[in-house]
Amino acid sequence: MFKHILLPTDGSADSEAAIVSCIRFAQATGAAITGLHVMPVMHLFTYEPGVTEAVHAQVRQENERHAKRYLEHMEQMASAAGVKCTTLLLMSDYPFEAIIDAARNASCDLVAMASHGRKGVKAMLLGSETHKVLTHSAIPVLVFPHGSGTATAAEFTS
Predict the structure, then answer these.
(1) Phi-psi region of 8 (alpha: psi -120 to 50; beta: other; left: phi over 0)
(2) Can you give the residue ranges of every domain in the chain?
(3) Half-sphere exposure for 4 (CA within 13 Å, toward CB)
(4) In terms of Cα–Cα distance, which of 116, 97, 112 is closest to 41?
(5) pLDDT (tens digit, 9 = 90+) per residue, 59-88?
(6) The domain defined by 4-157 carries CATH number 3.20.20.210
(7) Which residue has the higher pLDDT, 19 or 121?
(8) Radius of gyration of the chain (CA)
(9) Which PANTHER family match (predicted)?
(10) Does the pTM exceed 0.90?
(11) Structure confidence at residue 153 as a pLDDT band (50, 70, 90)
């Protein structure tokens, strides 16, 4: 069975539901979790470099603060369930690549993540990191579908 799960989060409601379900899955199987948040790399261009640097630093600090809050929340939930959890914060222009690399580097044997259920134009414009991970990962991927709520531990053991 799976022993080490990579659990990416973006702080959304779908990710929150996936966290709850994944922690229950890890609890039922005795797996450890590595929580991951991938921050976007900031690319700012302006005629006034001094302004850009100040804004860049402020936005990055705000993004880091939010990311750390998401990851701390995951750690607290896992700890309350008796599941070993470490966290990782990365920056990348390509979150799906960062997710796959993090899973490989941490020797994870499963990636568990939410699907946001985007369709139509939104899916084309925003893309799907979950779909890209599914397409490119050599490691199995467990997808918690958009709007599926949270699974109970009994659902994983039956």
Answers:
(1) beta
(2) 4-157
(3) 13
(4) 97
(5) 889 999 999 999 999 999 999 999 999 999
(6) no
(7) 19
(8) 17
(9) STRESS RESPONSE PROTEIN NHAX, UNIVERSAL STRESS PROTEIN UP12
(10) no
(11) very low
Rounded to whole angstroms, the Cα distance separating 128 from 147 reads 16
The overall average pLDDT reported for the chain is: 85
Structure tokens at 105: 């580097």
Three-state DSSP state, 32? strand
- Rounded to whole angstroms, the Cα distance separating 72 from 74 reads 5
pLDDT tens digit sequence for 23-55: 999 999 999 999 999 998 877 666 666 667 777
Structure tokens at 95: 């979150």
- Measured in residues, the chain has a length of 158
**Which residues have a Cβ under 8 Å from the Cβ of 84 and sit 6 or more positions away?**
32, 33, 78
| Amino acid at the residue 11 | G
Residue 36, amino acid: L
